[in-house]
Write a structure and sequence with these properties.
Layout: H1 4-18, E1 23-28, H2 41-45, E2 50-56, E3 59-64, E4 68-73, E5 79-83, E6 93-99, E7 104-108, E8 115-120, H3 121-124, H4 144-151, H5 158-163, H6 173-183, H7 197-219, H8 251-254, E9 261-265, E10 268-272
Antiparallel strand pairs: 1-6, 2-3, 3-4, 4-8, 5-7, 6-7, 9-10
This protein binds a DNA duplex through loops.
Length: about 280
DNA sequence: CACTCTCCCTGAAAGC
DNA sequence: TGCTTTCAGGGAGAGT
């Protein structure tokens, strides 16, 4: 499922085939996904040159040369399938773009939790989907002090707090679980006990996990150009995520045969090791 | 305001 | 084997 590292990789893939190119054809194949496609979506994109493709948290931003910005979110099953050959769209290919270099980009999303809409340069920062987002965890400005400040006084558990996009924008279930494990912090711990020393471990842990995931995604980027491309899906070496009942791989746990646990917090599965995460 | 729950949707996997 | 049920997840909006 696409979280920040996957979205980052998707952005790089889109940038490589869209930046500086013109969108020649736009095929909108249904009325909407999580939200309806706005009126005039196709005509806004058609004939425009893409100047830049970037990311804000888990949102993809495609800047057009007339000041419009395409705003896309992959939800949990969304993919951007890039192909240099002619391909016929399938049931879940909801939007198909063709560039002046005959590259096809299909926004595929079986569960339709994703979205695609447009706004303008001017209105971007105040857009309702973006305005309440917290800092991006990979920004230089995301420091232990900043995290501490937003966790201070919060009584909810640290796992749910890190999932809250208003506090930090871009983490999802997988990378929250993995970051807490790397930092040795229990997901059950109350947020207000994290500021200070634990935040000093947690922030570098988050950055490290995200950077490694982006690197892993980056190495498979080449494959995305293939028609069968699996853009947005990567095999990662998880230490805790989806490993309930399996051994914790940490040095200090491996000899003891400690098992990964699964609990539910705020309606979401949390995977952790109760031995090395306190 | 802080926080949790529900819902949207489909495909994979588990259960019968 | 094949049908039915369960589960997963991001985030908006409702509910406590």
């Amino acid at each position: 499922m696409p979280e920040l590292p996957e979205v980052e990789t998707v952005c790089r893939g889109l940038a490589s085939c869209l930046e500086g190119r013109r969108i020649e054809r736009v095929d909108v194949r249904r009325s909407g996904m999580r939200i309806p496609f706005p009126k005039g979506l196709a005509s806004v994109m058609q004939g425009r040159k893409v100047t830049r493709v970037t990311r804000k948290a888990k949102y993809i931003l495609m800047y057009l040369d007339d000041g419009h910005v395409i705003l896309a979110h992959l939800g949990m099953s969304g993919r951007m399938v890039i192909s240099s050959e002619k391909v016929s769209p399938g049931r879940h290919d909801h939007i198909v773009l063709t560039t002046n270099e005959a590259t096809t980009i299909m926004f595929n999303d079986p569960r339709r939790f994703g979205l695609l809409t447009f706004t303008t340069d001017q209105e971007l920062a105040g857009h309702r989907l973006l305005r309440d987002l917290g800092p991006d965890p990979l920004d230089r400005g995301f420091t232990p002090e900043v995290l501490s400040q937003s966790l201070r006084g919060r009584s909810t558990n640290i796992k749910s707090a890190l999932m809250d996009q208003k506090l930090i924008a871009g983490l999802g279930n997988i990378y929250v679980c993995e970051s807490l494990h790397w930092a040795g912090i229990s997901p059950r711990r109350r947020s207000l006990s994290v500021p200070g020393l634990r935040a000093k471990r947690l922030v570098p842990a988050i950055k490290k996990i995200l950077h490694e995931a982006i690197l892993a995604g980056g190495s498979t980027l080449r494959d995305h150009i293939q028609p069968s491309g699996e853009l947005g899906y990567f095999q990662h070496q998880f230490h805790v995520y989806d490993r309930e009942g399996e051994e914790c791989l940490r040095d200090t746990c491996i000899a003891k045969g400690v098992r990964i646990k699964r609990i539910v917090q705020s309606g979401r599965s949390t995977f952790y090791c109760s031995e090395c995460q306190r």
